[in-house]
Write a structure and sequence with these properties.
Order of helices and strands: EEEEEEEEEEE
Shape: elongated
Number of domains: 1
């Protein structure tokens, strides 16, 4: 299990299966949405935690259930953060994140893949808890 905090604008988590069905949408304040394929509803949860003058804080969890496919790669969980209106929000911060590997196969990697531009800042200052256990190397 992983707990992480990070600032980001757009992210696709790489490692559960996505089919082309309708999307589930979570409104993140007045000008942003998080969207993912609705077939992932049992596996993905994003909750709006707090909004400040320029920052949206969320909590995110994802459970990966499918083992690796062709080429040994695990299917990804794409999550789209979309701006729907003009706003002063310059950051979306994942205040708490839980990633669960229920694939039955040990992972040797976990990463985010940013798509369509956007920026990501991974801050692990003294007030933040960050661990990659059991992937300590």
């Amino acid at each position: 299990m992983f707990h992480r905090r990070r600032s980001l604008l757009a992210v696709s988590v790489v490692a559960a299966f996505v089919s082309s069905a309708s999307a589930d949408v979570v409104q993140l304040g007045p000008a942003w949405q998080a969207m993912w394929d609705c077939s992932l509803d049992p596996s993905v949860d994003i909750t709006l935690d707090e909004i400040t003058d320029d920052t949206i804080y969320i909590q995110k969890s994802a459970e990966f259930t499918q083992g690796p496919g062709m080429g040994g790669l695990f299917p990804s969980i794409p999550i789209v953060f979309r701006q729907t209106a003009y706003s002063n929000f310059t950051r979306i911060v994942i205040r708490d994140e839980i990633i669960t590997n229920s694939t039955g196969v040990d992972w040797t990697d976990f990463h985010f893949e940013l798509m369509d531009g956007g920026d990501a800042l991974f801050y692990t200052g003294p007030d933040f808890f960050f661990t990659t256990s059991p992937l300590d190397n």
